[in-house]
Each structure stands twice: as C-alpha cells, then as structure tokens.
C-alpha cells in the first residue's frame, strides 16, 4: 500500500493487534514467494485442496490488488469519509492506504463491541442511479469504442503508408450505435405511458431494483422486498408491482426530491418549543435519524392548550411516545403515499407576470415592460398510447397575469384541475337477464351524450409499388364497384349517418 510498518502503526487505533499478526507471521514463516502466493490465493478464494502455482494465478492477484490506483468516485469518497470519520478532500477520489487502515480499525472495534453494523437495506446506504448516470456510463463506453476505431485506423494508415485526416479518424458511428443500442435494448428502457397525465407522472416516478448491476426476480430475498422503516416519507409502501417483481419496483412518495448525491430527500416540518414558528426541512435518510419524527396528523393538535398531548414518534428506527408540550425538537412528516403530484407538466403556466400581448392556437405571448416571452402550445400531439395531447388557451387577450397562473389547459385538465373519468351510479341487480354471470349492462345514455368518449390519434401508412404498368397511385376513388353499391358513401368514402 506504499506504507511502512511505522506509518501503519501510527495510523491505526489498535497497533498491538497488528503486532500480534506480525508475531504469528514470524512463527509461521513462509519459505518462498511461490508458497506465499499460493497461501494467499487459497485464503482469498476459500478453496480447499492444494492449488498449483502458475503465472496466470500470479497475474490474477497482481490485477486485483496491485493496480496503480483504484477510482472510488465522488459519491464513494463522500460515503467513506462519513462512515470512517476521515477528512480526505472530496476531490481525491483514489483509494488510499488511510481508507484501508480506517476500515480495518472499524472492523476490529466491532469485534470488541464498539460501533454498529450497517443495514444494507437502509436508504442511507442506497442511492438513485438516474437516467443521466446511465447515459454517462454509455458515453464512456462509446469513447472506449471510438478509441479502438481510431487506433485501428491509424494502424491501417501506417501499413498502407497513407496520412490519415481528422475526418477519417473520428466518426460519430460508435456514439450513435451505443446510444441506439441503449435506448432500444437496455432492460430499463421503456416507452413512456402517456395515456393521461396521471399515468405519465406515475411511470416517470418509478424506482427499480432490476437491470444491469441490480437484482433479479429470482435472486431477490424477502428482506429486500419488504418495507423498511427508512422508507417512511421517501418511498410509497403500497404502490408496487405484483408476482415475481413485488417489492422490486416501487414509486416515489409525494414531494420527494432527489439530492445531488443521489439520495432521496423528503420535506419535514420542524417544531421547536424555543421558537414560535416552524420551518420546512428537506432531509435525507442519514440526517433524519437524528430527529424525532412524528406523523403529519400531529399538526392538527391544539398547541394552545396547557395539558400534555402524547403523540407517537420515531427516533433511530424505534417508535416511542413524546409529550407534545415538552418536546425539545420534533419534525413532522408530510404524508406517505403518492396520491398526486402538484405539477403534472401538461399545463401552460406564466413564468413571470405580464400582459397577454398575443394569443392563438399555437402560442401565447406575454409582454412585461417591453420584454416579450413566447410560450408554445401543444397542438394535437400524438403520444405513445395513441391518445390526444392538446393545450387550449383559457384566458382572453389583454388580461394581466401573475407568475404561476394557468394560461392553457392540457389533456385531461379542466379549469386547471385534473379531470379523469366521471362518477356514475352503479347498481348490483339483475336486469331482465342481460347481465347474466359476468356480463355488464350500461345505459345508452353514456354513448349518446359522450360520457366516456375520448380522442385517439392513430397513424396509418400505405405503401405504393412500381408495377409493370407503372407506379401505383393513391386515390379516393373506389374502382370496380357499381354506383349502386356506393350510394351511401360521401365523397371521402365515409358512410352516411343512418344508412
């Protein structure tokens, strides 16, 4: 590791234990380098029998333990500094000898009952791998492929005694093929569900333990699938997949944010008896452990009465009760489940206050002190589920708008509110045998008044071919049919109503 014995003993908390290891090594002295490699390999791989020394075995150990540097990354460096109480700069992302010695000290202390083990299912030991992280990994893979192509091009040019140009050396083919393969073949790449705004936002807020580098439905244990206390306020405990993927695909809770380090942060309302008013805090699972957390219903208690009010709370994964009047500091969680999301992203909203200067079906222009802002509108867009995405202006020309006000409704939005479906009266009763067994009888009132009518956009294509008599021609005429058979069709070929 680049450290001598004196440096190691000066940087550990239990030097006598290290000296005892050295004394055991003197007693059990290994005669040669080959025997030392064999013994280390046997203990490292936990293999029985007598392995035979070879150069491949030596190269394998060299590759695993004697590289020039091991890249931790900024997130691993931060976690290691926090767990091992180190003060190594965050920009130093290489594994150092201090890290290994501190980890050994921690394990020795746990052997003597000092310290606690890590819970691998706790959210503080997990992070969100976003789509940006996946794309960054694919970009690194594309650069490796590009390097290989450049080397092969240079070697070929040297062999043929040609001078390569930058246009011949660097091409976008490796990058294009890598990203096409990622979006088309990656197990986590899915077509966004755009049936309505609610299904879209639910699909976008899914979390998955599956995929490359993750778990599988066959190998995931029950402890991983189960609800963990750290999920409170961060992950919805109810919304999950069924059958083999139960507990492996989850949804974010309402108001949850993803921090810069990939941790989930949820809002809490801090209440302190020394301060009159509370404040909102976004806490990660690691910081949440240092607070007493109560449920959101505690905000409804009457804080003006003199009697003590006992409310349940949670502190360091344990549940307890606290007196509301005598609590030194307590934070209140703001809901658990993912019920709705404040901004569905389908409304046209004024980004700053101003006056409606121009409005049509394609855009809305806001004017404020001579500055104009053009807000485009979605016009009959064709989403993935063949539904209709359309934004309709809801404000007249010349009105003054404030920041955040709604300018146009979107799909499944009426008056700025989500409008999905309609409540109807359902009767569980027989009706002249029409609803026998599993049949369902509905009123024709639904059809005639378009109670559940929805718009769908489908795109159809027809191919024309080159024949021996010339190219095929697309026309609205119906050849080889008598006029009597076409009497109920209009000029566009659509059947007339009532025919």
UniProtKB/TrEMBL annotation:
Sorted UniProt keywords: DNA-directed RNA polymerase, Nucleotidyltransferase, Transcription, Transferase
Enzyme Commission (EC) number: 2.7.7.6
Name by which UniProt lists this protein: DNA-directed RNA polymerase
Reactions performed catalytically: RNA(n) + a ribonucleoside 5'-triphosphate = RNA(n+1) + diphosphate
One Gene Ontology cellular component annotation held by this UniProt entry: DNA-directed RNA polymerase complex
GO molecular function term, any single one: DNA binding
Domain DNA-directed RNA polymerase subunit 2 hybrid-binding: 352-498
Family: Belongs to the RNA polymerase beta chain family.
InterPro entries listed in its UniProt record: DNA-dir_RNA_pol_su2, DNA-dir_RNAP_su2_dom, RNA_pol_Rpb2_2, RNA_pol_Rpb2_2_sf, RNA_pol_Rpb2_3, RNA_pol_RPB2_OB-fold
GO biological process: DNA-templated transcription
Enzymatic class: transferase
One matching Pfam family: RNA_pol_Rpb2_3
Domain RNA polymerase Rpb2, first and last residues per copy: 1-128, 190-258
């Amino acid at each position: 590791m680049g450290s001598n014995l004196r440096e190691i003993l000066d940087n550990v908390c239990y030097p006598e234990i290290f000296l005892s290891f050295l004394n055991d090594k003197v007693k059990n002295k290994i005669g040669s380098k080959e025997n030392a490699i064999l013994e280390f390999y046997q203990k490292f791989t936990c293999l029985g029998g007598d392995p035979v020394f070879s150069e491949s075995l030596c190269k394998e150990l060299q590759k695993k333990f004697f590289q020039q540097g091991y890249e931790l990354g900024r997130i691993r460096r931060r976690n290691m500094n926090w767990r091992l109480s180190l003060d190594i700069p965050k920009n130093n992302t290489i594994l150092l000898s201090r890290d290994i010695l501190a980890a050994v000290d921690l394990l020795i202390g746990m052997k003597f009952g000092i310290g606690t083990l890590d819970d691998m299912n706790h959210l503080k030991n997990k992070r969100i791998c976003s789509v940006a992280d996946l794309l960054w990994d694919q970009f690194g893979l594309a650069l490796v492929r590009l390097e290989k192509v450049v080397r092969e091009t240079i070697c070929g040019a040297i062999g043929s005694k040609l001078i390569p140009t930058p246009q011949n050396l660097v091409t976008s083919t490796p990058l294009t093929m890598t990203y096409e393969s990622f979006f088309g073949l990656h197990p986590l790449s899915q077509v966004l569900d755009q049936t309505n705004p609610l299904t879209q936002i639910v699909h976008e807020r899914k979390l998955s333990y599956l995929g490359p580098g993750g778990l599988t439905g066959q190998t995931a244990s029950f402890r991983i699938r189960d609800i963990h206390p750290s999920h409170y306020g961060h992950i919805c405990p109810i919304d999950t997949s069924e059958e083999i993927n139960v507990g492996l695909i989850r949804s974010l809770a309402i108001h949850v944010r993803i921090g810069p380090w990939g941790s989930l942060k949820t809002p809490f309302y801090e209440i302190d008896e020394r301060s009159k008013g509370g404040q909102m805090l976004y806490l990660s699972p690691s910081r949440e452990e240092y607070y007493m957390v109560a449920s959101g219903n505690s905000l409804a208690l009457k804080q003006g009465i003199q009697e003590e009010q006992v409310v349940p709370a949670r502190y360091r994964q344990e549940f307890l009760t606290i007196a509301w009047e005598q609590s030194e500091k307590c934070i209140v969680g703001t809901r658990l489940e993912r019920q709705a999301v404040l901004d569905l992203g389908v409304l046209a909203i004024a980004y700053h206050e101003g006056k409606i200067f121009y409005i049509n079906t394609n855009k809305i222009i806001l004017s404020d002190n001579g500055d104009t802002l053009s807000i485009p509108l979605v016009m009959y867009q064709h989403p993935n589920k063949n539904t209709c995405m359309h934004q309709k202006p809801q404000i007249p020309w010349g009105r003054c708008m404030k920041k955040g006000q709604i300018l146009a409704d979107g799909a499944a939005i009426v008056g700025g509110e989500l409008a999905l479906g309609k409540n109807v009266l359902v009767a569980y009763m027989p009706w002249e045998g029409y609803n026998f067994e599993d049949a369902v009888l509905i009123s024709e009132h639904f059809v005639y008044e378009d109670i559940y009518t929805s718009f769908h956009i489908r795109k159809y294509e027809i191919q024309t071919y080159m024949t021996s008599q010339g190219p095929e021609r697309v026309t609205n005429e119906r050849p080889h049919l008598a006029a009597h058979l076409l009497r109920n069709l209009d000029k566009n070929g659509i059947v007339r109503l009532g025919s």
